[in-house]
Structure formats: C-alpha cells, structure tokens
Design goal:
mainly beta
Length: 98
C-alpha cells in the first residue's frame, strides 16, 4: 500500500452454474454476483455522489458444433446499481479452433 493511503475494505461474491444437455451439444449457464468495492462509504466513481454497490445477473447459451473446436455463444448480462440506471448487454460470439 502506498504511504499515506488508507486501506479500503470491499466485499462481493459470484456464483455460477451450467449444465450440458442434448448429448453435450447445448449448455445453458447462469451467473449471479454482487460487489461493494468500499463497505465503509458509498462512492460512485463517475459522479461525486451515489452508491457503489452493483448486482450482476448473467445468462448464456453455448451450442457446441464440434466439441470445443467449434461453438456459438450468446450471453445476456444485467448490471443493477443502487442509484443509477441499470446497464444491459448482449454478447454473441463464435469460436473456431484448428
């Protein structure tokens, strides 16, 4: 820690689960998380006021075309903040290995 800087205590967690279905071709997954980077203060890194806690909920689906060598993925994430508008994101990807 740098000289003159106070320690900051944060807390959070992530829990995730996934299962393969249909002869290992389809894999739905879910992840839930929470983060409070400073439990002693409500700090918004973008504005001078606000709260810094965030809940993150994510759901995804992977379709395995050829085991791990070729697959398609789609994912939806929702980030809920205490005093700010929630953020939503959708990610789609394709992976090919040879």
């Amino acid at each position: 820690m740098a000289a003159g800087k106070a320690a900051v205590d944060g807390q959070g967690f992530y829990a995730a689960g996934a299962v393969r279905l249909l002869e290992n071709k389809l894999e739905p997954a879910v992840r839930v998380g929470y983060l409070d980077p400073n439990v002693d203060a409500d700090v918004d890194p973008v504005a001078a006021k606000g709260k810094d806690e965030v809940w993150h909920v994510e759901g995804g689906l992977t379709y395995y075309i050829q085991k791990q060598e070729a697959k398609l993925l789609i994912n939806y994430g929702h980030f809920a903040y205490d005093d700010k508008k929630a953020n939503n994101e959708v990610t789609a990807a394709a992976q090919l290995s040879f």
